[in-house]
Amino acid sequence: MSYYGFVVIKDFSMKLFEYPDKSEWKEILQRPVLDSRSLDEKVSLVLKEVKMKRDEALREFTSRFDGITIHDFLVSENEILQAKQKVSKELKKAIQIAANNIEKFHIAQKEKSKVITTFSGIKCWRKSVAISKVGLYIPGGTAPLFSTILMLGIPARIAGCEEIVLCTPPDKSGNIHPAILFAADFLKIKKIYKVGGAQAIAAMAYGTESVPQVYKIFGPGNQYVTAAKQLVARDGVAIDMPAGPSEVAVFADKSCVPSFVAADLLSQAEHGNDSQVLLVTNDKKVLEKAKLELDLQLEQLPRKVFAANSLANSKAILVKNIEEGIELINEYAPEHLILQVKNYKRVADKIINAGSVFLGNYTPEAAGDYASGTNHTLPTNGYAKAFSGVSLDSFVKKITFQEISKGGIKKLGPVIETMAEAEELIAHKNAVSLRFRKK
Amino acid sequence: MSYYGFVVIKDFSMKLFEYPDKSEWKEILQRPVLDSRSLDEKVSLVLKEVKMKRDEALREFTSRFDGITIHDFLVSENEILQAKQKVSKELKKAIQIAANNIEKFHIAQKEKSKVITTFSGIKCWRKSVAISKVGLYIPGGTAPLFSTILMLGIPARIAGCEEIVLCTPPDKSGNIHPAILFAADFLKIKKIYKVGGAQAIAAMAYGTESVPQVYKIFGPGNQYVTAAKQLVARDGVAIDMPAGPSEVAVFADKSCVPSFVAADLLSQAEHGNDSQVLLVTNDKKVLEKAKLELDLQLEQLPRKVFAANSLANSKAILVKNIEEGIELINEYAPEHLILQVKNYKRVADKIINAGSVFLGNYTPEAAGDYASGTNHTLPTNGYAKAFSGVSLDSFVKKITFQEISKGGIKKLGPVIETMAEAEELIAHKNAVSLRFRKK
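The joint structure predicted for all components is written out below.
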């Protein structure tokens, strides 16, 4: 990629683009191409093995990839009891409050069934019905992502999913982090399995002796998990959405608080080297002040290396005015969008491509990541142009129903006959004719 | 597949299963495995060519596969004018009535944005925003599927999709069927392109000089189109749902009208050799009567060969009682389910896996296929366990928004801090701390 038409200020940790021409936007806004297809062959083998050898394969892969031999994949009640004792009172209380907010927001997404009389004698309606078996994948690693359990488990519970399966990799001693077990238990998720990676996705997609088969799989993961989800999707298992590295765009004008802007950018950057961070502003001073704050705050971060690497790949874009900024952001379609601009409501009204939008100086992304109530499983990589984040909808199907009276089919019948005949589907026509032309 | 534990009555055109044991259901209900993956290599080449050579590739493939060289892919206004003259008054009127019903049903799916105060000082809401660019694929062949244009175009219009692109293959003279053009024009779809097959999917996914790039692709198609949709989905283009051959399950008891049952089975069977037809009943006499009717009605069908072939692959299942029938149907998860049973409302309440349900003796599937108002783009192949049919939702994204007051972040801040710290994301914690611990 060649950079032209903008200046790179060496000591600014983000790449700076001053008033780029619209013709350059596409190139500037391009995300790194991450294609899990190169792993397809490897991951396909894992899927195949699990499909054939089931638990035996899970045991083999867990031993190979996680360095531990697991005999019983299901987490025992005793393990859960022990975990509950290890979680601090403070964290328990925090999880409870966050869960309460998340529940409130997702319960409000329930839809009442409305019967619509579309035509005389014809009643049509939709009903939301829970997907009866769902699987949640929670990645391992040093930090326990218990917040994702809340984000997936709460709407699953509200939807009424009968069977909720949770897979998460064990550590080298064969344990799961207590916070994970506490959060799952808090949501009454009983089927927690010590299995991670592509093999966990395979287990939930096809079922093994231990792990039940599910109809839809949710949750983040590394590139192997991502590839596995895409491959099982090809076998008809539903997945939440295509995955990509997490992103934030901060749109700031002179009304912003530069230290907040910097903190928001860093809170995205600390996720990993590949995190995408974008600062859009119509004010050059904001850039300068944010830069100073970034340098200051970066120094104090334990995940400084991640954050610094990710910032080096990030971009600050100076736009002519608020309108141009809105247009650019809609073109980028960020997963998270923070609006630190004066007329944030007016701007929010014009945002058409984003996963979740945070309005004003006192609404950090971190609030939505944990506790405000909105879901944090959101479309990355520009998918916000066509995909929604996870919501109650993600855990239900909407089945349509219709009931037609004798009078209704008599009145609408000729319309259906005409259309069926024009499409040359005569049996379709007959099915209608018989019902109202019958003597 | 070995058939055991049931009797095949030779002169019955469907395979008969009498009171099969539950342990046999899985095998009986299995659909033929249709895997478009064998076409991946071929189709990938088409996608690659279109991505690189754009219109030139479209021209080449159209010439090769459709037997006609197209210079201008966009259908001209003049062509539309001429087409409108060729469509009968009666069909125009029928399309108008159907469109009106479909519009009523889909408009009712609009969701009002509700602001939820999840916590003191914290407001969260969702907004439905149209996917700005969508592509509709309408297959060619002898019968013009104008009804699918209504089913996709109407919700796209209601959602407010800015750009609606329609691709459909030309016939050997380079023309599109007048009913297709009339229906598209009726919905004010202006961008109609004469291109079909995998190359049409590629054109909409990547864009060419003629065909605009879209964010989501809808519509049925042959196995090449299906493979192309699944391959572009891997590139992040959204698609409506995984595809499979159309299906119907008719659940009938002694209150049914056997001639209606037979007509409904045939109206599915006529679609093609691979159509899936299932008859479930708790009454042996229904089987006998339906068989007689099937033989009678089949004789009169122009698509008799399709229907007969498809019936030969179809199954009639005798169940012990209504409850067992419900259980079996939920296990099958049919695309269409017709309930010709006495207590059809009670039965409908217990259906948890189906695309669309038709209640009572006077509600044929054909009504929903064309004109009652519900959508006919529905999950096949058991996908109804996790997928919904096309609806207004399919043409929008739901963006979440939140606004937090100074007081709100002060109150919820400590909760977020605790959770962020437990997940070892210190920059997340800082972004919150800064906002309320600031002097």
